[in-house]
């Protein structure tokens, strides 16, 4: 095969480092020809094994006998379907144990950086099968119970903050993990924080907190007297039960009905209204504005000044703004009832108005829309008049992007709020449009063609037509769940908004309930999560209460089971 020769072969770096730390300065020589064929190829193996490696003291290599140390060999075994076998060749178990102990002792003396580098070299010389075993070994070691570990480092607040993002179901599961998790949840008052988060973000939760009187136990720090976490833990399912009951009452039409008889002196009818937790303000056909106590249903104040029917109104914490068939808009002090301003612009009845953030929009039977700047109740100036409808403009609504108007000419027109320029027309109703509401991209309108239409304001498409009323749809409101409509047939209908927006939902499933109590045309309504308040040509205001529903003929009051009072021990 040719003359055998010797050549130097550089060892793997980790072998060099290990030997040096063991105190062996060395040079390395491997016998065999340069092609690895000498001695039958026993000294250099194609499978990666280094054999018969002679380690000689470099200082005495020329003067002293050679010191030959047979080092353990490293073989990357072939991957097979059978078990891992023979990954290390060693003379005996005893030698392996001694060698392992020496390596461990040396390993323990190294710095962390050197240890990491050494292990990286070892792993790089292993095969995929071995990597899998190492991964299985390391995986549980890398897992950390950080919720338990953080408090041990004095970081309880971080553990509490992490768990505070859980929903109720996950929080229940977290309590069962271990006692330490349960302690973090309890001491962190995480059930209280969950309820507070729901009250801040969900109007239904906020309303329940006020009506059932557990709001007083929320949003207080730990320095004040608050119930323990167990109180909030038991309160949460009671709240969920109340919510499910309210939703069932809406679906089934169960309600407690209260009636206000307006007792108009001349002509009868309540054209418009708005309410809050303390009062109801109504505009009547007899030219007056009446303010009612919402709890006792007594009339608190009557405002007079208009010479025609009060057709529309809106109020905030400072003023009441009303529009009348006398063609004027009046601004009243909400507390004293004093007239602060009278706007004379329209030539015919003011049919509807809206104001918000210093901007007011009014519309009239004269076919025009007026846009006003409201610097103060006494400083209101006309910005722009919008003309385009061919019949009376019955209703307007707006936000920061669009002004939306509807008319007896069967169209809905969209205008830019900032520039007052015309944007587009929504066509579809077959007769005049009497009412609408606009929010986000959705417009919902009611017409004298007896239908309700849902529109996408951005593209002008009609998304759904709701049919069910037998006469003109006079008033309409919607929230995230429902549409509530009132019509000249004397009926109030409750519709499923989410189903109406789903084109796959059958038309027969959209109307959830029809409420019949008014004996005349329904002129106006508003609603929230707990009630509908409506007014009619029959001279009444009805309060449909879906929270305190009658049980065996008795109105369910604020019993202890619903008040959730905490008694300090």
UniProtKB/TrEMBL annotation:
Substrate recognition component of a SCF (SKP1-CUL1-F-box protein) E3 ubiquitin-protein ligase complex which mediates the ubiquitination and subsequent proteasomal degradation of target proteins. Probably recognizes and binds to phosphorylated target proteins: the interaction with substrates requires the phosphorylation of the two serine residues in the substrates' destruction motif D-S-G-X(2,3,4)-S. SCF(FBXW11) mediates the ubiquitination of phosphorylated CTNNB1 and participates in Wnt signaling regulation. Residues 156-194 form the F-box domain. Pfam families: Beta-TrCP_D, F-box-like, WD40. WD repeats lie at residues 263-302, 303-342, 343-382, 386-425, 426-465, 466-498, 515-545. The keyword Repeat applies. Keywords: Repeat, Ubl conjugation pathway, WD repeat, Wnt signaling pathway. InterPro entries: Beta-TrCP_D, F-box-like_dom_sf, F-box_dom, WD-F-box_domain-protein, WD40/YVTN_repeat-like_dom_sf, WD40_PAC1, WD40_repeat_CS, WD40_repeat_dom_sf. Pathway: Protein modification; protein ubiquitination. GO terms for biological process: sprouting angiogenesis; Wnt signaling pathway. The keyword Isomerase does not apply. The gene is LOC113054240. One of its GO terms (molecular function) is protein dimerization activity. This is F-box/WD repeat-containing protein 11 isoform X1. Self-associates. Component of the SCF(FBXW11) complex.
């Amino acid at each position: 095969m040719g003359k055998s020769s010797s050549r130097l072969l550089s060892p793997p770096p980790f072998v060099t480092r290990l030997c040096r730390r063991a105190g062996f300065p060395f040079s390395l020589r491997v016998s065999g020809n340069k092609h690895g064929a000498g001695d039958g190829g026993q000294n250099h193996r194609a499978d990666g094994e280094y054999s018969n490696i002679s380690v000689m003291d470099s200082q005495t290599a020329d003067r002293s006998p050679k010191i030959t140390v047979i080092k353990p060999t490293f073989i990357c075994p072939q991957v097979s379907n059978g078990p891992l076998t023979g990954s290390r060749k060693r003379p005996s178990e005893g030698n392996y144990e001694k060698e392992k102990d020496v390596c461990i002792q040396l390993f323990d003396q190294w710095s962390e950086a050197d240890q990491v580098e050494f292990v990286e070299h070892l792993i790089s010389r292993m095969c995929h099968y071995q990597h899998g075993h190492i991964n299985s070994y390391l995986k549980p070691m890398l897992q950390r119970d950080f919720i338990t570990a953080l408090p041990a480092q004095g970081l309880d607040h971080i553990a509490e903050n992490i768990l505070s993002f859980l929903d109720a179901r996950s929080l229940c599961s977290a309590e069962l993990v271990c006692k330490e998790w349960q302690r973090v949840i309890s001491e962190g008052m995480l059930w209280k924080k969950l309820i507070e988060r729901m009250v801040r973000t969900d109007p239904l939760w906020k309303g329940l907190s006020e009506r059932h009187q557990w709001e007083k136990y929320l949003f207080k720090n730990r320095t004040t007297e608050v119930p323990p976490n167990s109180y909030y833990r038991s309160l949460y399912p009671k709240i969920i039960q109340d919510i499910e009951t309210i939703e069932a009452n809406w679906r089934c039409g169960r309600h407690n009905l209260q009636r206000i008889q307006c007792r108009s002196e001349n002509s009868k009818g309540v054209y418009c209204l708005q309410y809050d937790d303390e009062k109801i303000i109504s505009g009547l056909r007899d030219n007056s504005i009446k303010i009612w106590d919402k709890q006792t249903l007594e009339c608190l104040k009557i405002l007079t000044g208009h010479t025609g029917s009060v057709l529309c109104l809106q109020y905030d914490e400072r003023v009441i703004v009303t529009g009348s068939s006398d063609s004027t808009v009046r601004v009243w002090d909400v507390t004293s009832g004093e007239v602060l301003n009278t706007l004379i612009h329209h030539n015919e009845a003011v049919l509807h108005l809206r104001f918000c953030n210093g901007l007011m929009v009014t519309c009239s039977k004269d076919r025009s829309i007026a846009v006003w700047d409201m610097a103060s109740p006494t400083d209101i100036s006309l910005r722009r008049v919008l003309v385009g409808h061919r019949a009376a403009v019955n209703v307007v609504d707006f936000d920061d992007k669009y002004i939306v108007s509807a008319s007896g000419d069967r169209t809905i027109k969209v205008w830019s709020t900032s520039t007052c320029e015309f944007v587009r027309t929504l066509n579809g109703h077959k007769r005049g449009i009497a009412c609408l509401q606009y929010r986000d991209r959705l417009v919902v309108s009611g017409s004298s063609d007896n239908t309700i239409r849902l529109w996408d304001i951005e593209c002008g498409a009609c998304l759904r037509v709701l049919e069910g009323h037998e006469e003109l749809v006079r008033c309409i409101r919607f929230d995230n769940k429902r549409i509530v409509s009132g019509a000249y047939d004397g009926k109030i209908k409750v519709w499923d908004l989410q189903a109406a927006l789903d084109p796959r939902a059958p038309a027969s499933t959209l109307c959830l309930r029809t409420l019949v109590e008014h004996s005349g045309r329904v002129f106006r309504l508003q609603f929230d999560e707990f009630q509908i308040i409506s007014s009619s040509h029959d001279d009444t205001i009805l309060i449909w209460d879906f929270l305190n529903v009658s049980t065996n003929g008795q109105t369910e009051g604020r019993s202890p089971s619903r008040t959730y009072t905490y008694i300090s021990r």
